[in-house]
Amino acid sequence: MRVHVADHPLITHKLTVLRDKTTPSPVFRALTEELVTLLAYEATRGVTVEEITIQTPVTETVGVKISEPRPLVVPILRAGLGMLEGMVKLLPTAEVGFLGMVRNEETLEPTTYAERLPDDLSDRQCFVLDPMLATGGSLAAAIDFLFQRGAMHVTAICLLAAPEGLERLEAETAGKDVTIVLGALDEKLDENGYIVPGLGDAGDRLYGVV
Ligand SMILES: O=P(O)(O)OC[C@H]1O[C@H](OP(=O)(O)OP(=O)(O)O)[C@H](O)[C@@H]1O
Ligand SMILES: O=c1cc[nH]c(=O)[nH]1
Ligand SMILES: [Mg+2]
Predict the structure, then answer these.
(1) Where, in this chain's numbering, is 5-phospho-alpha-D-ribose 1-diphosphate bound (predicted)?
(2) Which residue among the candidates 107, 111, 120, 123 is catalytic per the annotation?
(3) Is 107 a catalytic residue?
(4) ipTM of the complex model
(5) Measured at the alpha carbon of residue 175, what is the angle toward residues 91 and 50, in degrees to the nearest 5?
(6) Roughly what angle, to the nearest 10 degrees, separates helices 163-172 and 137-148?
(7) Which CATH architecture does the domain made up of 2-207 adopt?
(8) Residues 193, 11, 87, 34, CA torsion sign
């Protein structure tokens, strides 16, 4: 498993505002979108392209286009939905699949309540979006789902992660081609499974308490 933690003052600045408990939902949503676009730049570094010949107004030249089949972007509902627009801004030709997951706040175990993905993911470049990698249970289950459908490589973009979650993910995805791109790696999990210092419940901050 490869882990890339962003190291850029613009990302750290935006994350600081996001972490601030006084930041209201509309600002939180806008910043989430901006952060994903910045992280997607790193996450798509390995996207496969093929050469094409085009005609500029001046001459013929060789460029590239993103290879077929189109990349698949999978936001994990709810909170991952807040990252979708920022991602497809950078990858406008991507297809979008959905996974709905919720973590039981007592046991911290995730359950999947919705799934809308292509049956066959072989040859697909898959990008999973979820702002929070806490215990790692939700992301491990999502990545496992994609590999079971035939994916060969999965890249996940998360705004924040806890070391405990990364460790679990590393163990559960051993031998698989997985890349994790993070806005920041935080200190730890608290006794309720929340990331410290974190930003609270990302889904609630984006969409309100349910
Ligand atoms: O790493 P884990 O311990 O599994 O926790 C992380 C998960 O928790 C949050 O979702 P939540 O269950 O709060 O659902 P929501 O997005 O609907 O708020 C978050 O968006 C992740 O999916
Ligand atoms: O800190 C956390 C942990 C799990 N889910 C969140 O939204 N925040
Ligand atoms: Mg939540």
Answers:
(1) 78, 103, 130-138, 201
(2) 107
(3) yes
(4) 0.98
(5) 35
(6) 30
(7) 3-Layer(aba) Sandwich (3.40)
(8) positive
